[in-house]
């Protein structure tokens, strides 16, 4: 786990703790379904942040005989558990509370207190979203300042390999939207004197969180099974190899994330004909050295060499990645 992802999770943890305490008190006094859903949401976010920190800690263990590639995928597993917790606790609890408020409405008390609590939550969540967006841009190596951070983070979120950064980003954005929905619902309920809007807001928040939990669970399942690197990264790997003297073609590249910032690469290269074993080993060592130096997330690399008997001499053939995965 890199520093930006670790920092984003800690910021989310303390923000969620503060927000949960504020919302829980307001929900207990005000008896609002939307406020209850938001308190439950913040509780879930708090627990999820703890799960992510557990995953980060366990993923940092060094490789051993039983796990030669390390424990990097621990962070994906605990992110998956966090998604299940979000769906089972937050989403279902919000939907249930909202349903009861619609079917059997209960008056909302202390509207002013609820409004103040939700307004403060908007400020907390805005700060957390801002930090999460910056973590996204740092993770993908994009430079952005001011309002450009918003567009850059949204545009590049699917390129993020670090599940903690991605989870915190979506979690914080959903939390901000949920607070805004709850604030509007309480205001409309007071304005129209119709408590049903409070229950509807709780149902909307629950449905939104359920969809988010399913999406994040699927995302982490994909990483646990073994997702390949982004095509741009794969192309860079091939280009670096082709620029090494003695390499005539890259026949195959297979990649798989073995951690949030760790990539496994298996590749097959063709070398100039009639290279002896010692020179071929030097070519392989040079390819490995340059790839690891220029692409920091590559931690493990295996290279197979085949002689290009169809190329009698230099210059190199046209770059042809016919089996890139």
UniProtKB/TrEMBL annotation:
Membrane-spanning parts: 9-29, 75-96, 108-129, 167-189, 195-218
MF (Gene Ontology): monoatomic cation transmembrane transporter activity
GO term, biological process aspect, one: zinc ion transport
Locations listed in the record: Membrane
Keywords, sorted A to Z: Membrane, Transmembrane, Transmembrane helix, Transport
InterPro entries to which the protein is assigned, alphabetical: Cation_efflux, Cation_efflux_CTD, Cation_efflux_CTD_sf, Cation_efflux_TM, Cation_efflux_TMD_sf, SLC30A9
Membrane topology, record value: Multi-pass membrane protein
GO CC term (a single one): membrane
Keyword Coiled coil on entry: no
Annotated SUPFAM superfamilies: Cation efflux protein cytoplasmic domain-like, Cation efflux protein transmembrane domain-like
Residue span, Cation efflux protein cytoplasmic domain: 232-304
Keyword Transmembrane helix: yes
Superkingdom: Bacteria
Pfam families found in the cross-reference section: Cation_efflux (PF01545), ZT_dimer (PF16916)
Positions of the Cation efflux protein transmembrane domain: 9-224
NCBIfam families for the chain: CDF
Name this polypeptide is given: Cobalt-zinc-cadmium resistance protein
Annotated organism of origin: Desulfocucumis palustris
